[in-house]
Amino acid sequence: MSQYLLACDEGTSSARSVLFDREGYVASSAQIELQSTFPQDGWVEQDANAIWAAQRQSVAGALEQLGTTSSSLHAVGITNQRETTLVWDRSTGEPVGPAITWQCRRTANQCAAINQSSDAEWMSARTGLKIDPYFSATKLRWILDSDPDLPQQGRDGELAFGTVDSWLMFKLTDGRLHAIDRTNASRTLLMDLQKGAWDDELLGYFDIPREILPTIAPSSGEIGYTAGDVLGVEIPIAGVAGDQQAALVGQGCTTPNSAKLTYGTGAFLLVHTGQEAQVSKSGLLSTTAASLGDVEEFALEGSVFSAGSAIQWLRDNLGILAAAAESEDFAMSVQDNAGVFLIPAFEGLGAPHWSANARGALVGLSRSADRRHIVRAALESIALQSYDLIEALESDTGNKIEELRVDGGAAANDFLLQFQADLLDRPVVRPRDLESTARGAANLAAAATDFWFDARYEVDRRFEPNMSVKDRRLKLEGWRAALDSVLSGISDISS
Ligand code: ADP
Predict the structure, then answer these.
(1) Are the C-beta atoms of 218 and 182 separated by less than 8 Å?
(2) Ligand 1 and 13: CB distance under 6 A
(3) Is the dihedral of CA 322, 327, 330, 333 positive or negative?
(4) CA distances to 91, 141, 424 from 170, in Å
(5) Residue 429 in 3-state DSSP?
(6) pLDDT per residue over 163-174, tens digit each?
(7) First vs last C-alpha separation in the chain
(8) For 321-365, what is each residue's pLDDT tens digit?
(9) Is the shortest distance between the CB of 68 and ligand 1 below 6 Å?
(10) Of 6, 114, 246, 296, which one's alpha carbon is 20 to 30 angstroms from that of 436?
């Protein structure tokens, strides 16, 4: 009997493979680092072949750790960095150029032009997204424009476009499958969110030939089969979702109004909105959720640009921490923040403020403040920004999130999670397994192939709120005043 379910978790900085056993426990896991290149200011690329090589190598590593072979595998789940855009030759399987990653801003001018036109409104309404270089459409247009032969080859059906999930599926099936799951498709700016189908008007606007598009597949279901000469075994590819949507599933948030927050470099909040796509009035994105069945489900999404990166900044730029984990002891060694607030607007501010030109500030410094207060202010800023995001989300949905499930690297920090619970005045829950992304991909594949019966969501710790109404109000007032000083340009006075 096949014993393991393979989750391929292809992220920006590494490709990981996790093997889950039939009881839902992680049996082994292997990770291979991946490089990005920065050929020009604001440009970010990856080598598509290196992505595949790293993924393949990590699969071998995870099997090797258990001393087993691919014949012990039952099915594959895939989760991936979203929006990253690839085009390859269908017959040779060779990419026509580098993968343009989600971080790449090379199409900023094109997006700015659309945003100044009347088209931005219908495009946002149709896709649930903002017109931003983050999403795939303008990156794909850029690739097609990079070589005068490509548009015709595209129309002739010689080329294939896809996001990283499509690329892995193509490779795993030895070129037999050209698909994209619905969650990844919802990030391309080419899909009608309500219909879950490619949109002719958007394709026309960006001049994208239909012949290059992958088939949109559900997130859970037997989408295709791995080729025997690639993986050594023919098994179903049965679950696919973009990383944030997979994490939502991995955290068990599959019913309306359940939410998860991932504290990584940035922070990503997703709330499940059931079978209705909701339009945000607060600058959040409306997106497809990964459904465990074959029904369309949706989510609202908001992100904070700088979360864990504020801690990295203290460590790498100011040198006041030797390691990110030290921040917890520093913060707990003082009574309060001594009135200090850090606004980590290193790359501007995202939802709900949306100020690209805002820049960071440290405000409220007095003679008694020392580095411990600055570290505390940095951790508090992660929770305060997340609070603003949740407040915006709740004003959109009109529903209160009862408890917040968290994951990501900085979710290891007890001070941060307690402070988040205090601010929100509701429980914050940390699961035992912080790898929600891989678990989500595994859950999607398991549901389609009857692999397990227990999705095994286990709580590590529940942080209960413990802050007085007055303290919460004062904290939020201080934060608002600090934010206002940044948003009103006061921080520019010294320049
Ligand atoms: P990503 O997936 O974006 O690379 P991770 O989920 O791996 O991010 O989390 C890494 C981030 O979390 C880093 O920015 C790091 O500074 C921060 N981080 C890691 N451990 C801690 C900790 N104990 N306390 C606070 N921040 C932390």
Answers:
(1) yes
(2) yes
(3) negative
(4) 11, 21, 44
(5) strand
(6) 999 999 999 999
(7) 68
(8) 999 999 999 999 999 999 999 999 887 787 788 777 788 999 999
(9) no
(10) 296
HSE-up of residue 170 (Cα within 13 Å, Cβ side) = 30
- Inter-axis angle of helices 119-127 and 108-116, to 10 degrees? 110
Which one of 303, 309, 311, 317 would you pick to mutate in the ligand 1 pocket, going by the greatest count of ligand atoms within 8 A of its CB?
311
Q: Is 320 exposed, middle or buried (0-12, 13-18, 19+ CB in 10 A)?
A: middle
Neighbouring residues of 11: CB distance < 8 A, sequence distance ≥ 6: 34, 80, 81, 243, 437
Task: Kindly state the tokens that stand for 260.
Answer: 């998860």
Residue 312 Cβ < 6 Å to ligand 1? yes
Kindly report the pTM of this predicted structure.
0.89
Mapped onto helix, strand or coil, the DSSP state of residue 382 is helix
Other Cβ atoms closer than 10 A to 157: 12
Whether residue 202 contacts residue 137, with contact meaning beta carbons closer than 8 Å, is answered with: yes
Tokens standing for residue 276: 């209705």
- Give residue for tokens 């990501």: 408
122 phi/psi in degrees, rounded to 5: -70, -30
